Structure formats: C-alpha cells, structure tokens
C-alpha cells in the first residue's frame, strides 16, 4: 500500500479516525468550469491558476454562507490535484479521505472543509496538518529529508476570527489568503441548477426550476440536495422530473 501522511498514521494510532470515502456525487465531479462565478471571480482565478510557478504555500481560506460554492471549489481543487498526481488529504466535519500520490516525492494538498463544524478530535487533526505543513516547508528550504511541501486550502461558513475552534487553529486558518464568497443571485442559482441537472442527465420539465425558486430560498446547497433527491425519486418512479412529481415527493417526505 502507498505510504500515507505520517500525520494521519499517528492520528489513527491515537484515536481511530472515520475514514469515510468522500462522496463526490455523480461520476463526473463538479469542476472549475462548472462554477457559476457571480461575484467570486477573485477566488476562482486563484484556484484555477493553482499551483502556478512560484506558488505561495501559505494557507488559503474560503468563507461564506451555505450554498456560496465552498465545497464545489474544494472538490474541484481535489480533482485537479489528483489529476496532477499530487497526494491529497481531505478532512471534513463528518468525513476524511486520503489519496496517495503515485510518487512519494510528489507534494500533498490538504483540504479542510466545514471548519466551523469540526469537533475536538478533527480540530486536533487540522492543527497537526499545519504543523506538518510548516515542517515540510522548512525541510525543503534547508535541504532536509525531502518531505514534500504541504499546501492547505480550507473553508467554512464564518471568517477565521469567528470560527468556534481552538485558538491556535483559528490563528493558522487566518494566516494566509482569505476569500469571502458571495451567494449567487436568482439568475445564477437558476443557471447552476440547470447545469447540475444536465450534468446528472436529468430532464427537467418546464417550470421545475422556477417552482423551486419561488418556494424556497436561494440556498444553493439546499436546492442541490433537493435536486439530488428528486433525481433519485424520478428514477425510482420511472418518470420525468416535473412539478407534479416534485410535489408528490415533497408530500411523501412530510407525510
């Protein structure tokens, strides 16, 4: 088996960690090209150019309300890192996964999602990622043992200063670049839902998206989850996704 991060090997000895495969959804995971930019062009530009020559290894933190695209961008970055044959460590509030690089000398990207929801154990793991990152960086600078540098990109609903986490982790999450993500307007949400439906191969009848937008908030995370449930329900019923089918599903869920 390829060698995983020493940090996670140690963590597993100290306390078993929930190694749950990250569910990236359909076979084709969302990428940067699928992201509706809105007012978030600066963050998308930085992530799309990562890792540019001379890439700064300082941590990057994305924050914004639910549905502002944080997890979409993180998952797109994971896809990019894996395609570049980098190692990846994903740590979230409820899941964790490691992608080992084919070459042990390749760099490793650490991604921390839902920083505002990390429990004490996962806060400990997140803090140790920063320690390992600093150690790896010093090793390269002084010509040490050749440990690959470890970049960290994290996200949460709150800015670093307001995160309900231990002080040393809060400080480190705010060390580097911080991007505040803005939710999409109604036109952006509509376009995003239509793109997601097309990506999933869902045929949406006229009026479905408009019905959703007139009866629910523009919380894109909620709407995407609703669209996924609707997709599964339509497949189970062998029916096209229509407003009556949506009403039927919602009625059964609240019954």
What are the key terms here?
single chain; 255 residues; alpha/beta; Rossmann fold; Helicase, Ruva Protein, domain 3; six-stranded mixed sheet; 11% strand; disordered N terminus
Topology:
Blueprint: H1 6-14, H2 41-49, E1 60-63, H3 70-83, E2 87-91, E3 96-99, E4 108-112, H4 120-141, E5 150-156, H5 167-173, E6 177-180, H6 186-200, H7 208-215, H8 220-237, H9 243-254
Parallel strand pairs: 1-5, 1-6, 2-4, 4-5
Antiparallel strand pairs: 2-3
Q: Can you walk through the features of this model?
A:
The structure is a single chain. The chain has 255 residues and is of the alpha/beta class. The protein has two domains: 6-180, Rossmann fold (3-Layer(aba) Sandwich), CATH 3.40.50; 186-254, Helicase, Ruva Protein, domain 3 (Orthogonal Bundle). It has helices at 6-14, 41-49, 70-83, 120-141, 167-173, 186-200, 208-215, 220-237, 243-254, and strands at residues 60-63, 87-91, 96-99, 108-112, 150-156, 177-180. The chain has a six-stranded mixed β-sheet, sandwiched between helices. Helix 6 (186-200) runs parallel beside helix 8 (220-237). The radius of gyration is 20 Å and the shape is elongated.
């Amino acid at each position: 088996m390829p060698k995983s991060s020493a940090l996670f090997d140690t963590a597993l000895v100290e306390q078993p960690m929930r190694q749950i495969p990250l569910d990236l959804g359909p076979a084709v995971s969302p990428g940067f090209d699928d992201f509706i930019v809105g007012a978030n062009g600066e963050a998308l530009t930085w992530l799309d150019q990562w890792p540019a020559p001379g890439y700064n290894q300082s941590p990057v933190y994305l924050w914004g309300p639910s549905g502002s695209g944080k997890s979409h961008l993180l998952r797109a970055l994971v896809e990019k890192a894996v395609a570049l044959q980098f190692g990846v460590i994903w740590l979230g509030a409820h899941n964790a996964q490691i992608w080992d690089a084919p070459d042990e000398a390749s760099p490793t990207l650490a991604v921390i999602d839902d920083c505002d929801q990390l429990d004490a154990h996962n806060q400990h793991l997140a803090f140790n990622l920063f320690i390992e990152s600093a150690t790896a960086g010093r090793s390269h600078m002084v010509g040490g043992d050749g440990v690959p540098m470890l970049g960290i990109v994290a996200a949460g609903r709150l800015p670093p200063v307001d995160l309900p986490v231990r002080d040393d982790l809060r400080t480190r999450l705010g060390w580097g670049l911080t991007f505040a993500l803005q939710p999409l307007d109604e036109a952006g949400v509509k376009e995003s839902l239509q793109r997601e439906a097309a990506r999933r191969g869902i045929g949406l009848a006229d009026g479905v998206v408009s019905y959703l937008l007139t009866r629910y908030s523009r919380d894109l995370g909620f709407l995407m989850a609703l669209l996924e449930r609707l997709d599964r329900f339509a497949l189970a019923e062998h029916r096209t996704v229509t407003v009556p089918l949506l009403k039927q599903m919602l009625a059964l869920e609240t019954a």
